[in-house]
Amino acid sequence: MSFELPKLPYAYNALEPYIDEKTMEIHHSKHHNGYTNNLNNAISGTDLEGKSIEEICSTAGLSGSVRNNGGGFYNHCMFWSIMSPNGGGNPSGKIGEEINNTFGSFENFKSEFAKAAGTRFGSGWAWLCYCSGDLTICSTPNQDNPLMENQCGGTPLLCLDVWEHAYYLNYQNRRPDYINSFFNVINWEEVNRRFEKASS
Ligand code: MN3
After folding, report:
1. HSE (CB half, 13 Å, CA atoms) of 180?
2. Which fold has domain 93-199?
3. What is the DSSP letter of 190?
4. How far is Cα 124 from Cα 114, in angstroms, rounded to an integer?
5. What is the C-alpha to C-alpha distance for residues 23 and 41, in angstroms, rounded to an integer?
6. What confidence score (pLDDT) does residue 1 get?
7. What separation in Å is there between the alpha carbon of 30 and the centre of ligand 1?
8. pTM to 2 decimals?
9. What is the pLDDT of residues 86-119, one digit of tens each?
10. What stretches in the chain show pLDDT beneath 70?
11. Domain ranges (residues) in the chain
């Protein structure tokens, strides 16, 4: 059993004008595909073979290769799923209520999330997590995620890739513009589904 690159749940051009077709195509078919193949090679013949990607990410003492490529596989699978051409707008359902309770307003949440994504130096990710009963925002370097050793240990609900490969073709050095555009494609139904599962 090896990991397979998941099909995108929409076309490469479906998130335009916020994320362009060429970026999506390279990001999915080259970068994510590379992490997938490298992960399979890295775990082949080890105790990690046959485990779920969540189990692998949360295993202590991972090698650099498994940590980087396992994170790359998991993070991008999640990233595609929490975006949608029908996304954006205000979060509804339980996650909408909890964001208001925790951050005071959706605008405050956006501001704090954008700050975490904008201030992550170099390559990495911004996250909204459900952590010990609370919503929290954090960021991770490289392909780390909250499930990994020495990260927050929360359940990831929302993620944003801030590697330059995620935005450079269209936004060049303007990471803040890319972050603001991301709010127009967030699939809040999926985020709410993840929140309801994590908090039940
Ligand atoms: Mn990426």
Report:
1. 5
2. minor pseudopilin epsh fold (3.55.40)
3. H
4. 13
5. 26
6. 61
7. 10
8. 0.97
9. 999 999 899 999 999 999 999 999 999 999 999 9
10. 1
11. 21-81, 93-199
Q: How far is the CA of 26 from the centre of ligand 1 (A)?
A: 10
| Identity of the residue numbered 192 | N
The two domains 21-81 and 93-199 share their CATH topology (first three levels equal): no
Residue 3 and residue 144: Cα distance in Å, rounded?
18
Question: What's the gap in Å between 167 CA and the centre of ligand 1?
Answer: 9
User: In the CATH scheme, what is the homologous superfamily, with its name and number, of domain 21-81?
Assistant: Fe,Mn superoxide dismutase (SOD) domain (1.10.287.990)
Q: How much distance in Å is there from the Cα of 62 to the middle of ligand 1?
A: 20
21 vs 197: CA distance, rounded Å: 32
Which tokens go with 200? 């039940």
Tokens of 153: 């240990």
Distance 60 CA to ligand 1 centre (A): 23
